[in-house]
Amino acid sequence: QVQLVESGGGLVQAGDSLRLSCAASGRAGSRYAMAWWRQAPGNEREFVAAISWSGGSTDYADSVKGRFTISRNNAKNTVYLQMGSLKPEDTAIYYCSAAIRDYSMDYTTSLDFDYTYWGQGTQVTVSS
Hints:
Layout: E1 3-7, E2 10-13, E3 18-25, E4 32-39, E5 46-51, E6 58-60, E7 68-73, E8 78-83, E9 92-100, E10 117-118, E11 122-127
Parallel strand pairs: 2-11
Antiparallel strand pairs: 1-3, 3-8, 4-5, 4-9, 5-6, 7-8, 9-10, 9-11
């Protein structure tokens, strides 16, 4: 089992920056790709960004490219989402997820069914 706990959400103004963190625990020694997702009220969950175990492979949704950066610190078992130039349409609950792939350091995926473990989410609200 992998437990994921997100933090760092809050209320910010349009144009501000915010950094989300996702701390992982359990399955020591496993390699896992991680991703961020978001879900706004009335909308389906959507992919935001993903990163491989090595950190060398990343993927972003078109809506956040150039504004958001995903990174990770494996020594701290933590993945981050640095969000900049925030817009009101970025308002959502942000979730992180993990997909264990012990055979690969560079595996990433933007498909939600590839992820086994999910956090409880952290709210991000961007006011105009």
